[in-house]
Amino acid sequence: MAEGRARAFGPTRKREEEVAVPAVSVEHLSKSYGDTVAVRDVTFDVQKGEVFALLGPNGAGKTTTVEILEGFRERSGGRVQTLGVDPADHSTQRWLRTRIGVILQELAVEPYYSVRQVLARNAGYYPNPRPVDEVIELIGLSEKADDRVKRLSGGQQRRLDVGLGIIGNPELLFLDEPTTGLDPSGRRETWELIRLLASEGTTVLLTTHYMDEVEALADRVAVLFGQEIVASGTPSSIGGRDFGAVTIRFRLPDGVTLASLPVLAKPSDDGRVEIHTEDEVRVLHDLTGWALEGGHALRGLSVLRVSLEDIYLGLTQARAERRGEEPESRR
Ligand SMILES: Nc1ncnc2c1ncn2[C@@H]1O[C@H](COP(=O)(O)OP(=O)(O)OP(=O)(O)O)[C@@H](O)[C@H]1O
Ligand SMILES: [Mg+2]
Predict the structure, then answer these.
(1) Domain boundaries, the chain
(2) Among 11, 25, 140, 153, which one is least packed by beta carbons within 10 Å?
(3) What topology does CATH give the domain 19-235?
């Protein structure tokens, strides 16, 4: 992060002021509903232009955090800024609402209006909206533009939710589980749309349960578990993912035995052979050099580092076990 780097080099006060204000800044945020603690001491920043993902099991506090940032819920403690202002401050709330786009986890839109009417009405709330037809095209609802909202399928309604989030041409877009309930092509189209918005400079804060969504979209990710952030980083480095062992797999070439390979390998569950190593450059060099020299085909060759899902489940299961709870995957 630019800010972290600047601090490490000991900037002057002036240089620190020049560092851009983050789109979102959360420091020691807490929220309780009566006796229920929903968020405990959560701290993170989202820089302008970033796509930031919040991951975490049901009830971890994602929606609570996001809705506090949008100004829809009040916090119990900590400091929060959205586009440089406190979202709970009534004097700036109207200003803020015209600059952010929101897709709530559950949204109720007027069922008797058509898709076009709903978008046009909402466009009227913003100073600089996107053209309604452009949004209809972007969300893939051109053929349903004149249908009433109540006739849309669940996935089509979710697309309309996305349309309502972007109609105001926001600087900062909050997406609470934007692709839950979408079919595979709907998910891909929504990803394309989010990438397009990001390429135009829109900052995006999304929550999701899908690891592939994080990998496809997020510059950075934080994992919420038990109301706290337990890890954060880039999708490729979080939880030490860029270090540690890789698994190399390939089909044993015809006429070759395990013992005659130049590296130590064992049979894999899928009929190939596999090697676990932390020294993959050396092992691949030895293996591919041997294959080229002897004219052996290494069919089905793959090199896999631990998946984001493995990291996520590792982080959340270890904590659940420490607390004597059931981890998410066994619920
Ligand atoms: N309005 C509310 N009143 C009381 N408790 C609430 C309220 N909203 C949320 N909670 C509680 O706060 C905790 C966090 O809920 P939250 O909705 O933020 O989780 P989440 O991470 O968004 O979960 P999901 O993945 O299921 O959407 C949960 O224990 C939940 O029961
Ligand atoms: Mg939620």
Answers:
(1) 19-235, 246-305
(2) 153
(3) Rossmann fold (3.40.50)
